[in-house]
Amino acid sequence: MPLWLKTFISIIVVALITTTNVSCAEDQQMTEVTDNQQLIVLISPKKGDPYYADMAEEILKFQLAFAQQIAIYDQVLVLTDQENYSYFADVLGEQRVLIAPQDDIWARDFSSSNTTTPMMFRYTAAGQGGGRRGQVDADYVQDNFANFLIGAGLQFETSNLLNDGGNFVSDFSGNTVISTKFLTDNRLSETKAKELLLAMPGINNLAFIEADEQGGLQHADGVVAFVDDNVLAINSYPDDPDYMQQLKADLKRGLPDVKILELVTPYDGSGIYDARFGSACGIYTNMLVTKTRIYLPQFGIKEDVLALQQVRAMTNKQVIPVQSGMVCQMGGGVRCMSAQFHGIANERLLKAVEKPTDGQE
User: Fold this and answer.
1) How many CA atoms lie within 13 Å of 116's alpha carbon, on the beta-carbon side?
2) What residues pair up with 339 in beta bridges, in sequence order?
3) Distance of CA 86 to the CA centre of its chain
4) What does the alpha-carbon distance between residue 255 and residue 237 come to, in Å, rounded to a whole number?
5) Which of 106, 164, 280, 355 is the most exposed place for a label (fewest CB within 10 A)?
6) What pLDDT score does 360 carry?
């Protein structure tokens, strides 16, 4: 058994649930309080981290503004270090900020996938630059975050199958899209992979797609997004009709009852921060979707208005525009920086703010 999985051996299947000392009545009350809201967890860069040094100010500004927007509609918690604590707490309030330093800001990838029936896959080496050292670093990053969750009282299932949260796109009806990188990483045929994944709670229908990039992360959330139950938005690829045709065919084969709609995609790869991870500029499918809301990235370009109109026409959810042009060159933004938690898990994590953690002084 891998070392990383031993760390999580206490984790149980199906969902993020409370520990057994919580009564059934308390369970019901806490679920009612948070059922229509999700908790979005953001992780700030550590002060002085050399990798983020050139972008640290922009990242912090984005995260603070994004957190302020989330706080209007849902619940938000920022995990940060001592040095950046006041930057967030002075604006958001101490109840929304916790000193619990983490080792990476892209919380989506090493957190649990499938919000309502969570599963924490093993974070892949690609998320930390690839190679053997990348896998060591990926395990370390995920172990640190998982230990924080366990310390906050959360229990959840893990899988030793390799996959990033960015390569798991689902709606709240059991429809899921994953790129074929999953097959390569786990050395599985599509048939065997479907057998394993469809046996997991909350995955009823599954489509494998080819990523629109070669190498790198190859995440499905840079290609597709469920804007509602059984409604899937995809990037437009006017310069690559063959890829578009194959993409639609793969989606229809795996998700025959899902409606597929194209979304304007003015991709801009001119200012990439790290060539290993590409750019998310102009990719509106990298949106954060909850049960009732969509946080839609905006890039300060003319297509923003059209994308907002298109998404609002596709869904009954509330669509909230979020300016993310200052960080998209790093390869992500609205979805990639967000870990999502639902129901009683919200209460568990927010209660962690009330008690000291190992990272506090």
Assistant:
1) 17
2) 41
3) 25
4) 20
5) 355
6) 44
